[in-house]
Design brief:
Blueprint: H1 3-54, H2 60-71, E1 78-83, E2 88-91, H3 103-112, E3 114-119, E4 122-130, E5 135-142, H4 145-192, H5 211-260, H6 265-295, E6 305-307, H7 309-323, E7 328-332, E8 342-344, H8 346-363, E9 368-376, E10 379-387, H9 415-425, E11 429-435, E12 438-446
Parallel strand pairs: 7-9
Antiparallel strand pairs: 1-2, 1-5, 3-4, 4-5, 6-8, 9-10, 10-12, 11-12
Helix pairs in contact: 1-4, 5-6, 6-9, 7-8, 8-9
Length: 447
């Protein structure tokens, strides 16, 4: 079922239920009022006829004649009067006698003073009238023909009103559901216009403050992430094609040159280090791409456990020291401090620290790399520092993938992007500062 149909159905159903309840309430109130007023009229009619019979000294024959004449044109009230000993004093029409007053009924009236009840379609009242002269038991019965006719007319009007309202409600519900869903159709039409060729386009948001406007914002955010993913994929393939082609072409040239030369072990031995170096560059590029891919993984897919970041730092120092044996990497760590644990991923933390150390070794001007670990109550700060050239200026674009610090140095522009992604995964803060020809990079864990 379409949302438009559902909205129309829910609107009509809920409104119709309220309407039917209101109609039932009106009809029930009218029915109760009719019953109340007619019992009051019966009481007045009974008292009037009793007064005429007793105080007015009107003969029973005259009262019965009036009753018989009225019955021919209008529904008349049948009245019966009994004395305190249950002897019949007057009756409008003994032959009809709708009520059939029994001794038990008369005793009930005498005891309760006033009763009222239904006898088939007739409404009946019984009253015990006391006066200084004598006590009387009076019954009165009649059918409220006009009252029932008015109720029947009211019921027809209510049914007609409900049917007309139902048609009107369907029209109103369909109209408003269409108006409400117009933004959805707008979103659908605009979304279908966006493809891989124009991911830079966004859906205009004319209603930013309601739920559908928030949906448009969410879709635009999704398109932004898709555009970034497509751009990253495009740049990755382009960059890989360029970076892999150069060392592979070099290896190919070296091997082809060796194949053309006469067999000479000395010449082969001279060329093998070049081939080894190219293969090493390929392996390093592949490792960087793997680290970058893992750093881009959704946080929910990453395995977290209790790890000691200082131990990850020590592993990274050992790896980089083997790679750059000529560099002097110094780690300053207080022996009195207890090494804290954090909830993190050991592989990713080691990769981040390794990339920071590799950059410090490659771009440091004096061959020294300083690492200082500072323990605080609210966190842990690891500071990497190395000397840089006097004209060195930190560029924030270096945090972006495939942005190389220097084209004169070997590298692929992935290291700092890997560092930033891993820091975000671990909710760590990174701060950079260039002071006195020294680059400081602070990695800050919050506890």
């Amino acid at each position: 079922m379409k949302i438009k149909t559902k909205l129309t159905f829910y609107f009509v159903a809920s409104t119709l239920c309220i309407l039917l309840f209101f109609a039932w309430f009106v009809f029930q109130t009218a029915s109760n009022q009719r019953e109340k007023y007619f019992f009051e009229n019966l009481q007045k009619e009974a008292i009037t006829k009793a007064n005429l019979f007793l105080d007015g000294k009107v003969s029973p024959e005259i009262l019965q004649t009036i009753y018989q004449n009225n019955r021919k044109t209008i529904p008349e009230v049948e009245v019966a009067i009994y004395d305190n000993n249950f002897q019949l004093l007057y009756h409008d029409d003994v032959t009809l006698d709708y009520v059939k007053e029994t001794k038990q009924l008369l005793q009930q009236i005498q005891s309760e003073k006033s009763i009222q009840f239904y006898l088939n379609d007739y409404q009946v009242i019984g009253m015990y009238l006391s006066s200084s002269n004598r006590n009387l038991i009076v019954t009165a019965a009649a059918i409220d023909v006009s009252g029932y006719q008015e109720l029947q007319s009211l019921w027809k009007y209510i049914l007609a009103f409900c049917v007309i309202s139902l048609v009107f409600l369907f029209w109103i519900g369909s109209y408003f559901s269409t108006k409400l869903l117009q933004p959805v159709q707008y979103i659908q039409s605009k979304t279908t216009e966006i493809s891989a060729k124009n991911l830079h386009e966004r859906i205009p948001n004319p209603i930013p403050n309601n739920e559908l406007g928030q949906l448009i914002t969410t879709i635009n955010d999704l398109l932004q992430r898709l555009e970034q993913a497509f751009s990253l994929q495009k740049n990755t393939f382009s960059y890989l094609a360029h970076e892999l082609r150069t060392p592979l072409f070099t290896v190919k040239s070296e091997v082809e040159w060796l194949l053309k030369q006469p067999e000479s072990f000395a010449e082969i031995k001279t060329s093998l280090p070049k081939i080894t170096n190219d293969i090493h560059q390929l392996l390093h590029l592949i490792q960087s791409m793997l680290d970058y891919a893992k750093a881009q993984t959704d946080v929910s897919q990453i395995h977290f456990e209790k790890v000691e970041p200082v131990l990850c730092l020590l592993d990274a120092v050992q790896e980089v020291q083997k790679q750059y044996p000529q560099k002097n990497i110094q780690l300053h760590l207080s022996e009195n401090e207890e090494i804290p644990e954090i909830n993190g991923n050991k592989y990713l933390l080691t990769a981040a620290f390794r990339n920071l150390l590799e950059n410090a070794c490659k771009y440091g001007v004096d061959g020294n790399v300083q690492i200082k670990v500072t323990f605080e109550k609210q966190g842990l700060i690891i500071t990497f520092s190395n000397k840089v050239a006097s004209e060195f200026v930190w560029n924030p674009d270096w945090w972006n993938a495939f942005t190389k610090t220097s084209y004169q140095k070997s590298g692929y522009g992935l290291g700092m992007a890997i560092v930033q992604s891993i820091a975000q995964i671990h909710s760590a803060n990174i701060h950079t500062l260039v002071q006195n020809e020294t680059l400081f990079i602070d990695w800050e864990f919050k506890f």
